[in-house]
């Protein structure tokens, strides 16, 4: 913790109190007035690849940084002491509309995969989210909040005739990176949805990764018509990927971990019980796979096998906390 960061945090809090960020504003909130250069501020509202609006979040006391694009509210980078933990495809076009950003954490909502009438993985990842607020919290964690509502009239949502207000907050703290999705039913009739945090964790090579937490669980094998597969024996060595894998583990525990044998890095995932499933995916060079497939493993806390249902006025919250050792 540096005195400099304290000062920036204080100034930012004062500034945020002074002005309310208008959630419906199509413009990016202005930078907080501080003497420090933007690249040292806890929150930097800026532009990324292809000039797309994005937010950089910094937690200086733990040397963490995250980048979140407004398009898809996609987290595309999370570093601790300069080390990157997410894989992002070299093939991305970085264009608003049509294709989702591949890599980081795409949000699958209100539909996971092809299970429904919407586009694969729903519209959240191909929608423009608005920045609602940026805050340095009392415990020095730093949060950026993004919003998406049915009122925004984006084309990708047209096939989903429900009124909703979705809020996505991304926080860096001593505990790591937290992403939190809240969905409120603002309609006068109930609706159901499925969702996932589609984490693309960076691996040295995917064969070096071992995943812990899935032992003895049943899963649906998406490569075999979602056939329910028998329990796996717990060998104590974790689950290893040696071929194309696309599974949905049901009733996955609240804590999962991925270990990389080459770097000896452990990634820990904590998830809320509202995300009762977790998927495991790597295409292993199958036709159409991204050429970078060797360097990621997708472990995705998800609500798929038991869709969430919201009555009018109700709110659903699902969150994950990612930590690294
Ligand atoms: O190519 P995308 O639409 O981004 O989907 C990528 C992958 O997402 C999930 O992990 C699914 O379980 C996979 O079946 C799918 O291939």
From TrEMBL:
Catalytic activity line of the entry: alpha-D-glucose 6-phosphate = beta-D-glucose 6-phosphate
Presence of the UniProt keyword Isomerase in the record: yes
UniProtKB keywords: Isomerase
Statement: the UniProt record of this protein carries the keyword Isomerase: yes
CDD domains given in the database record: D-hex-6-P-epi_like (cd09020)
Catalytic residues in the record: 198, 300
Descriptive protein name: glucose-6-phosphate 1-epimerase
Species annotation: Gracilariopsis chorda
């Amino acid at each position: 913790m540096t005195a400099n960061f304290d000062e920036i945090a204080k100034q930012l809090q004062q500034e945020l109190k002074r002005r309310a960020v208008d959630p419906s504003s199509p413009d990016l909130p202005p930078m907080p007035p501080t003497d420090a250069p933007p690249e040292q501020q806890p929150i930097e509202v800026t532009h990324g690849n292809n000039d797309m609006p994005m937010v950089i979040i910094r937690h200086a006391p733990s040397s963490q940084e995250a980048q979140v694009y407004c398009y898809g509210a996609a987290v595309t980078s999370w570093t601790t002491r300069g080390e990157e933990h997410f894989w992002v495809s070299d093939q991305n076009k970085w264009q608003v509309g049509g294709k989702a950003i591949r890599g980081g954490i795409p949000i699958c909502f209100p539909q996971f995969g092809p299970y429904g009438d919407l586009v694969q993985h729903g519209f959240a990842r191909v929608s423009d989210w608005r920045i609602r607020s940026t805050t340095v919290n009392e415990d020095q964690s730093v949060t950026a909040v993004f919003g998406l509502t049915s009122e925004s009239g984006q084309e990708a949502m047209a096939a989903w005739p429900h009124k909703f207000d979705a809020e996505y907050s991304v926080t860096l703290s001593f505990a790591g990176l937290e992403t939190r999705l809240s969905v409120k039913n603002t309609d006068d009739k109930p609706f159901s949805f499925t969702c996932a945090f589609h984490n693309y964790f960076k691996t040295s090579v995917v064969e070096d990764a071992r995943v812990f937490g899935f032992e003895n669980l049943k899963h649906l094998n998406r490569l075999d018509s979602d056939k329910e597969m028998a329990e796996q024996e717990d060998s104590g060595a974790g689950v290893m990927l040696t071929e194309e894998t696309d599974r949905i583990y049901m009733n996955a525990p609240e804590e999962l971990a991925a270990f990389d044998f080459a770097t000896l890095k452990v990634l820990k995932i904590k998830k809320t019980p509202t995300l009762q499933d977790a998927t495991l995916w790597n295409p292993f060079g199958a036709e159409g796979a991204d050429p970078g497939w060797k360097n990621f493993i997708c472990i995705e806390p998800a609500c798929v096998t038991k869709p969430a249902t919201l009555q009018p006025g109700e709110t659903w919250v699902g969150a994950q906390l990612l930590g690294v050792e």
